[in-house]
């Protein structure tokens, strides 16, 4: 009887993990959709760089509201409900994106941002709980699935440029289908691996206040940096004037492709390199990639710089989420709500600052100084003395 119950719990854990991975692919497509579509949307709605940057703000303000809602939904109805509700909101937002004026478009962007804010924290914390002995590696693999979607997104926009409404409709249908599937997964309370379909019971882990502040800064800066760089790469490449249309539209794929490869390799690297040390090295490499992009004048420089930045930043976010789970223990779901909110505030602010700075100086090279400076601050924050794994 005990063996049968254990098997059911492990089966439920596996099903929920698979669901998290499957849901992260279309979430990845939608999260970065704005970047490759931004040149076309700017033309469609007559937006300057500052106004275009506000679309990123709309997406991540919506995501911040979603994170706040996610904590409530998880505490009331569990991880599956949060993931399903978030995916359904994303479906509606994507379907409505090109259905009217720029105001309707901005509202649609905010809606699918709201959905990602509900679904992403729930999925990340679910996987972190299940894999308490290897959080950073498991989260790297989960975010590898997100990167699959992120890589595909610019290619979809470039290949189906004349049929974007049809692509958006199909994407909305996929999101809705995955949402229904996630909700209908048989649910069993799983204590093995610390996974539950509800918040964990209190533990003796007490996070150090200084580390909480540092984690908050890292969540804010990392997501802001990734979105600021990845979201503006296509517009930056277009501004160089030396790249064919298909190349500048697809240029974010090189960044997100490198993120994907880096997250696939991260679990192997973490067997040999301590996670905080790997994050520091990654930030240095990401900084070099941004600097290279600022110095780029053609296709070769853009591609190489995007790849270097992607490889560098690949493991940083999963490691940061792993540190949150490790530092906060059973309170990670509660504290995580604040952290994921901060990450979305960063995603709202830094890309907007890139647009405003680029508009002010008349050149997006100046705007890319924003994620460059953010990478420097992240490195400084990662010099904190973190609690060793297993330390109380």
How does this model look, in words?
The chain is mainly alpha-helical and 392 residues long. It has one domain (2-381): MFS general substrate transporter like domains (Growth Hormone, Chain: A, Up-down Bundle). The protein has helices at 2-31, 34-45, 49-77, 79-96, 102-130, 135-159, 164-184, 209-240, 245-269, 275-295, 299-313, 316-328, 332-361, 364-367, 369-381. Helix 3 packs antiparallel against helix 13 and helix 9 packs parallel to helix 11 (299-313). The radius of gyration is 20 Å and the shape is globular. The two termini are 35 Å apart.
Using only C-alpha atoms, the radius of gyration works out to: 20 Å
Low-confidence stretches: 189-204
Largest sheet: none
* Distance linking N and C termini: 35 Å
How many discrete structural domains?
A: 1
Protein structure class: mainly alpha
Looking at the overall shape, the CATH architecture is Up-down Bundle
CATH superfamily label: MFS general substrate transporter like domains
Q: State mean pLDDT (0 to 100 scale).
A: 84
Please estimate the helix content: over 70%
SSE order, as H and E? Answer: HHHHHHHHHHHHHHH
The total strand number stands at 0
